[in-house]
Every structure is written in structure tokens, then in C-alpha cells.
């Protein structure tokens, strides 16, 4: 039996207790990492503290499609390993801020997926508990945006007791068919 099956059998109070314990463990594990990170669906931002006065030329930063290596030249790596998921290399960057923080911006290849961790060997977070920020329709790709707008329109139509876009298409097709075949009697027809 998987832990998801176990979770589904817990009472509400037991679930809340487990969620709280998991969140506390996750917070401790994430705090122990040599960096802080946050993500949105399309990107990951990593902040790494470096010694005050660090210059860009002192850093050894290697960003690859599936690997990341960060360190100070001549010293041990601060972080190094395989990325959790692939990134868009040409849109990923790094900058040094105030000579004390290294900011790494990684553009996700798959912009519809949360990352469990930055590097595969680092502790994972529970992506099912992520509370995404509200997004704007303009943030979505054309196909997804069209689908969301259709769903919003259909929902408004239903609330007003009016036909949805699909029902309107069916009614329009029926009207065209009736106009093309006036000899047929549709008075007793039930169309669903």
C-alpha cells in the first residue's frame, strides 16, 4: 500500500497533523541548503549568499541544460549536480547583486510542471502543496488561454440559464440543416 493510499484513509485531523509535520521537516531541510530558491510554473530563481566583496570574476558559474555548478574559483563548489528538470539555456542567466548574493534565474523547458528540488540529490518539496500566485490570462499560451476563456464564457452562460458555446454551435448547425431541408418536419425532434 502506497503512502497516498494511507493518506486517503486518515481522518481530517490526522491529515492536518501529517501535513504540519511534513511542512516542518521540509522547512528544516530547505533551510539547511546553501541557497534559497523559489519557483513559478515557468521559472526557478535561486539566491546564493557569497562572501561580501565577491566580484563576478571570482565566481565559477556553469549553467547547462540539465546541470548546474556554482562556486568560488579555487574553492569547493557551493552547489553542483544534475538539475531536477531541463531548462532553456539561452533564457537562463546569473547576476551578482551587491557583491554578496548570486542570483541564478533558470527558465524551465516545461512551463507546466513544478520542480520538487533544484538538484536531484537535494531534499524534495511536496509540489502538491504549492499555492501558485494568481496568473493573468495574458501569461498563458494561446491554446490554453482560448480554452480558459471558453470555460469562463460557458460558465457565465450556464449561470444566466443561456446555452454554452457548444450548445450554440449545435443549434446553429441545426438551423442550417433545417434551412437546407425545409421539406423535413422538426417539430417533434428532441436535440441534445
For the biggest β-sheet, the strand order reads 1-2-7-6
Number of strands: 7
Supply the helix-strand structural class. alpha+beta
Largest sheet: 4 strands, antiparallel
| Low-pLDDT ranges | none
Amount of helix? 25-40%
The tally of helices reads 4
Q: Mean pLDDT across all residues, rounded?
A: 87
Which range does the strand content fall in? 15-25%
Q: Assign an overall shape.
A: elongated
Describe this structure in words.
The two termini are 43 Å apart. A four-stranded antiparallel beta sheet has the order 1-2-7-6, with no helix packed on it. The chain has a three-stranded antiparallel beta sheet with strand order 3-4-5, with no helix packed on it. With 192 residues, it is of the alpha+beta class. A hairpin with a 2-residue loop joins strand 1 and strand 2. Helix content is 32%, strand content 21%.
Q: What is the secondary structure topology, with strand pairs?
A:
Layout lengths: L2 H7 L2 H20 L4 E5 L2 E7 L9 E5 L3 E6 L4 E6 L10 E5 L3 E7 L34 H18 L5 H16 L12
Antiparallel strand pairs: 1-2, 2-7, 3-4, 4-5, 6-7
Can you give me a brief rundown of this structure?
By secondary structure, the protein is of the alpha+beta class. Helices cover 32% and strands 21% of the residues. It has a 4-stranded antiparallel sheet with strand order 1-2-7-6, with no helix packed on it. The protein has a 3-stranded antiparallel sheet with strand order 3-4-5, with no helix packed on it.
Labels describing this entry:
four-stranded antiparallel β-sheet; about 30% helix; about 20% strand; alpha+beta; three-stranded antiparallel β-sheet; 4 helices
Amino acid at each position: 500500500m502506497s503512502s497516498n493510499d494511507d493518506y486517503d484513509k486518515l481522518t481530517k485531523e490526522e491529515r492536518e497533523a501529517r501535513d504540519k509535520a511534513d511542512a516542518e521537516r521540509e522547512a528544516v531541510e530547505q533551510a539547511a541548503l546553501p541557497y534559497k530558491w523559489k519557483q513559478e510554473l515557468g521559472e526557478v530563481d535561486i539566491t546564493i549568499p557569497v562572501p561580501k566583496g565577491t566580484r563576478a570574476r571570482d565566481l565559477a558559474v556553469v549553467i547547462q541544460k540539465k546541470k548546474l555548478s556554482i562556486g568560488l574559483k579555487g574553492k569547493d563548489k557551493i552547489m553542483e549536480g544534475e538539475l531536477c528538470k531541463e531548462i532553456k539555456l539561452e533564457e537562463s542567466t546569473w547576476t551578482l547583486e551587491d557583491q554578496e548574493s548570486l542570483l541564478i534565474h533558470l527558465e524551465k523547458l516545461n512551463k507546466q510542471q513544478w520542480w520538487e528540488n533544484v538538484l536531484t540529490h537535494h531534499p524534495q518539496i511536496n509540489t502538491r502543496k504549492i499555492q501558485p500566485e494568481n496568473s493573468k490570462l495574458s501569461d498563458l499560451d494561446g491554446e490554453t488561454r482560448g480554452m480558459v476563456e471558453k470555460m469562463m464564457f460557458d460558465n457565465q452562460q450556464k449561470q444566466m440559464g443561456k446555452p454554452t458555446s457548444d450548445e450554440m454551435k449545435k443549434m446553429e448547425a441545426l438551423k442550417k440543416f433545417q434551412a437546407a431541408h425545409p421539406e423535413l418536419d422538426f417539430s417533434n425532434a428532441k436535440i441534445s
